[in-house]
Design a protein that fits this description.
The complex is a heterodimer of chains A (234) and B (739). Chain A has eight helices and nine strands. Chain A is α+β, with helices and mostly antiparallel strands. In chain A, helix 2 packs across helix 3. Chain B folds into four domains: 47 residues, ADC-like domains (N-terminal domain of TfIIb, Single Sheet), CATH 2.20.25; 292 residues, 3-Layer(aba) Sandwich (Rossmann fold); 191 residues, Dimethylsulfoxide Reductase, domain 2, CATH 3.40.228.10; 116 residues, Barwin-like endoglucanases (Beta Barrel). The chains are: A alpha+beta (234), B alpha/beta (739).
Chain lengths: 234, 739
């Protein structure tokens, strides 16, 4: 069991535990965005960065293993500045209105959504192509969880992945097909792990739009996807 | 963003996996379903039905007011006794509307007092006139343990009959009889989560990805992350074949030769675990002698599976450290379903892959509570706890509990599901009580089923919707779905879990157990019987009453079920539950080998009916569709499709998407074809969810002689092109990219 010091607290971590796990076991809070107990950690969002003595760069707590003799700072000035900047960059381009945890972190870190006034916002239409759930990628923080549970973290279905590069990066289907035309089985594991309201059950979405439960029960909620031309010609 | 008024933790109402659900509720409306990642059953994962398929609760066609036929209110019947000619045909979309002119057969909405009084009067009238043998009841594998216990109690204690059964008869009866005979217990021997401990596992007769999706995830994980090797033995190229080491594409109904040939190889190549065979089994010499004829080449000639594949599968299974078998209805739903299951059980006996963690004989149970309904005695041969009705001392225990005079309970074996209907005629069954089941979609040879239903004098339907069967009923008692009641379900690996109400019953609908209690009190009053006790303050009291006699549930209380449930047997209130069975011994002592012969299916393909039809289910739908076809799930999968292999399609001039007419000697349906290599040459597949093209109009009602399970999985059909306007709903088309 590695012995380490996190924020001046001596801790014995479980073998193989990450800094994040070791800290949480000792009731030391490290904020996360992309981390989820049911998905593999990728260190994508960098919200969990910590300062480790002797290492040049800030380290992602969700990936770096706790090691014997490590000295870790989770709330140093450098760490706080990094986290604040991450939040401000996210807020400048993504609609975070459905992500109360991030809004609370912005308050906590004093992050301002106006830090980057010239930043372009990612504005895309809501994808409403099936009766089960909608995809509103204007709210997507690209945490990768949905892609992972669709792949080897749960479903082994591989219906969605990243598309585009840089600012254009989005979650999408292959050839941008409507979900019913992909390998999607509508298990909704992706909806279950989505933290930002980008993926949402159709019924919840409709309620938010002011549609009543009675109206929802009586309506068809799926957009008919394109019928194979071969069929209609028979 | 919506904030839930409350989040109710409960258990999924669909398949036997028993996933934990969290229902997010606002204004008595469930708008989102999640699952806790710490759930030991599903680890936060759900399938499309569990996550999105609960909206049938709010469907406008749900009946929430008691209804009776007008003749019952008038008291002056112009209904011809014993016929129900006015019931609509299967496939008729308008099951509810009344006739344009008032008729004695119209549905009339009424209050509970009237509906229950009329029901009690009629049931008592028939019982007084024709006795116990005229009464029968279908319990329900979707209802809770408490509902099922009460309903079988009502029929046993008040009508003194064992004509009590439910759809387990149509699903795993073959497996149950085989397991009872060979080991003395019929549930899964190991928990589903143990699949990741398997080195090798066989999946046969189960399209696990579509029918037990969460167990399939664990199987895929076992293969992809834990290095397990999967052997699929199935006539269809199901999704799991993508993850398999070997796929043995056998013809439907040829399980016995294939499994016996594997046993033959295990014996001939000296791969038998003699230590296990000698210590734990009996009858092996006779069994081995019976294997002589089952050479792999002989099995190939019958099943179409190359002999070499059979050899490789046998070696892989036999030489594994830990190996397990998971099977579904492709094994049991045959006129030789018991023999099929026995042939599988023999493989585990020969190799000793039973009685340890990571091994086992695991029939994947279909319904959310088919295990529980069976445990509750919703079966014609057993009281709760698998106590034979004719077993010494059994009836006496229930007589004492139910305040019945000694000798009062019937010791006579009751009729099974299919037999109840075939005995529906004057002098036989006269009144049928149906809780939640839908025989007019789920029985084989539906045209015959319909003729039987027409013969009944009085039918009570307790359900959510006017199903194809409820359309035949005289009384409709509106019940509540899982989200409006408390109780327990017992899942496929024997885990008893809580069901909790998310909101009150809609309209005037009542919880099933409340309906049964209210009716039972009326019946007792009319028959002047001492009360068997029907006033329960909470379902937990019902469970405790049952557990006071049923030893498997003896230590089960609602308090102990609160977090993750308990895996029975739970012999006392400190016992932690029993995930793995048979560690030391089998319930019957030694495991019993039974020599088998190959008996072909009752109907084989010929020149006139050249295809073997096999039926089953699809991911998006559930059984006869009374739930899922009243859900937005129906938009994902709106129509029945027949799967036909490209080679067959070409010969018969059938293109993808073309309407075809499929006929057997018993009936015919019209539906679209999907030309796909998911099926094999000579075999066609139709899911049985769709009343527009009810697969069970075609299926054969030949029964397994021991288990009385019908042969849903193999009958002979012909397929011819039809025209677009022959389809009932040509507009119902949906593109689908999934497997």
């Amino acid at each position: 069991m590695p012995q380490l010091i996190i924020d001046d607290k001596e801790i014995s971590a479980d073998d193989g535990a990450t800094i994040l796990e070791a800290a949480r076991q000792a009731d030391i809070d490290i904020p996360t965005i992309c981390w989820h107990p049911a998905t593999s950690s990728n260190g994508l969002c960098r919200m969990c960065v910590v300062e480790v003595e002797g290492m040049r760069l800030l380290q992602p707590g969700c990936l770096v293993k706790a090691a014997d003799g490590m000295r870790v700072q989770t709330k140093s000035e450098r760490v706080i500045r990094a986290r604040k900047t991450i939040l401000e960059m996210l807020a400048s381009s993504v609609d975070l209105s459905d992500f109360p945890e991030i809004l609370a972190l912005m308050d906590e870190y004093g992050a301002s959504s106006a830090r980057f006034p010239l930043a372009e916002r990612r504005e895309v239409e809501v994808k409403d192509d099936n009766p089960m759930f909608i995809r509103d990628y204007a709210k997507c923080v690209l945490c990768w969880r949905c892609v992972q549970v669709c792949a080897e973290d749960a479903q082994f279905t591989f219906a969605i992945n990243f598309s585009g590069r840089g600012f254009e990066t989005q979650i999408g289907t292959f050839f941008d097909r409507a979900l019913p035309a992909t390998s999607c089985v509508f298990c909704g594991q992706c909806v279950g792990v989505c933290p930002s309201g980008a993926l949402k059950p159709k019924r919840e979405f409709l309620l938010e739009q002011g549609v009543t439960p009675e109206q929802i029960a009586a309506m068809k909620t799926g957009l008919k996807s394109k019928v194979k031309s071969q069929r209609s010609s028979i | 963003m919506l904030k839930p008024e409350k989040i109710t933790t409960t258990t999924c109402p669909y398949c036997g996996v028993g996933c934990t659900l969290q229902l997010h509720v606002k204004d008595d409306f469930i708008y989102r379903v999640t699952s806790p990642y710490e759930s030991p059953v599903n680890h936060g994962n759900l399938c499309v039905k569990g996550r999105f398929g609960y909206d049938f609760i709010y469907h406008p066609q749900r009946i929430t007011v008691p209804m009776v036929r007008r003749y019952l209110l008038d008291g002056t019947s112009d209904k011809v006794l014993g016929t129900r000619k006015d019931a609509p045909d299967i496939g008729n979309q308008s099951l509810i509307p009344n006739h344009l002119s008032p008729s004695s057969w119209d549905w009339v909405e009424t209050d509970w007092e009237t509906a229950l009084d009329l029901t009690a009067n009629k049931l008592v009238e028939i019982y007084r006139r024709d006795g116990s043998d005229a009464m029968a009841v279908y319990c329900c594998a979707k209802a809770t343990n408490e509902d099922n216990y009460l309903l079988q109690k009502m029929y046993r204690a008040i009508f003194r009959t064992n004509n009590v059964d439910h759809c387990t008869r149509l699903c795993h009866a073959g497996s149950v009889v085989a397991l009872q005979q060979a080991v003395g217990s019929s549930a899964m021997s190991n928990s589903a989560a143990e699949v990741i401990q398997n080195d090798v596992f066989i999946v046969t007769g189960s399209n696990t990805s579509e029918n037990h999706p969460i167990i399939a995830l664990q199987m895929k994980e076992a293969v992809r992350k834990h290095g397990a090797k999967l052997i699929v033995i199935d006539p269809r190229r199901i999704e799991l074949v993508d993850f398999a080491e070997l796929w043995l594409p056998l013809k439907p109904g040829t399980n016995v030769p294939v499994f016996s040939a594997m046993a033959h190889v295990i014996v001939k190549e000296n791969l038998v675990n003699w230590d296990f065979v000698n210590r734990r089994t009996e009858g092996v010499e006779e069994f081995i002698a019976s294997l002589d004829k089952f050479t792999p080449e002989y099995a190939e000639s019958i099943s179409g599976v190359p002999a070499d594949l059979i050899r490789r599968a046998a070696r892989l299974y036999a030489t594994a450290q830990n190996a397990a078998i998971y099977w579904g209805m492709g094994i049991s739903q045959l006129s030789h379903g018991t023999a099929s299951a026995l042939a599988l059980i023999h493989l585990a006996f020969l190799t000793g892959h039973i009685g340890r963690p990571g091994t086992g004989l695991n029939p994947l149970r279909g319904q959310n509570n088919v295990q529980g309904a069976s445990d509750m005695g919703a079966m014609p041969f057993h009281f709760p706890g698998y106590m034979r009705v004719d077993g010494p001392g059994n009836a006496e225990q229930w007589e004492k509990l139910w305040n019945i005079e000694p000798g009062g309970l019937s010791r006579k074996l009751g009729l099974t599901t299919t037999e109840i209907l075939s005995h529906a005629h004057p002098g036989g069954i006269r009144a049928l009580y149906i809780m939640g089941e839908n025989p007019l979609m789920s029985e084989p040879n539906l045209n015959e089923t319909r003729r039987h239903m027409e013969q009944l004098e009085f039918i009570v339907a307790q359900d959510l919707f006017i199903t194809e069967s409820a359309a035949f009923a005289d009384v409709f008692l509106p019940a509540t779905p899982f989200a409006e009641k408390d109780g327990t379900f017992t899942n496929t690996d024997r885990r008893i879990q809580r069901v909790r109400a998310a909101h009150p019953p809609r309209g005037l609908s009542r919880r099933d157990s409340d309906i049964i209690s209210a009716l039972a009190l009326r019946l007792e009053a009319r028959l002047a019987r001492p009360s068997a006790k029907w006033d329960y303050a909470h379902p937990s009291e019902i469970l405790r009453e049952m557990a006071s006699v049923n030893p498997d549930y003896a230590g089960v209380t609602y308090e102990r079920l609160e977090k993750v449930g308990l895996i029975y047997p739970v012999p006392d209130e400190t016992h932690p539950g029993t995930p793995d069975l048979f560690l030391e011994t089998f319930p019957r002592g030694r495991g019993k080998f039974t020599p088998l012969d190959y008996v072909p299916s009752a109907e084989l393909p010929d020149d006139e009916y050249p295809f073997i039809l096999t039926t089953g289910r699809v991911l998006e739908h559930w059984h006869t569709g009374s739930m899922t076809r009243h859900s937005k799930l129906d938009e994902l999968y709106p129509e029945a499709l027949i799967e036909i292999h490209p080679a067959d399609a070409e010969i018969h001039g059938i293109a993808d998407g073309m309407p075809v007419k499929v006929s057997s000697r018993r009936g015919s349906v019209i539906l679209r074809a999907t030309v796909t290599e998911k099926t094999t040459v000579g075999v066609v597949f139709i899911p049985f969810h769709f009343h527009e093209a009810a697969a069970n109009l075609l299926t054969n009602d030949a029964l397994d002689p021991q288990a009385k399970i019908p042969e849903f999985k193999a009958c002979a059909v012909q397929v011819f092109p039809a025209r677009e306007h022959d389809l009932q709903n040509p507009a119902a088309l949906m593109e689908r990219g999934r497997y």
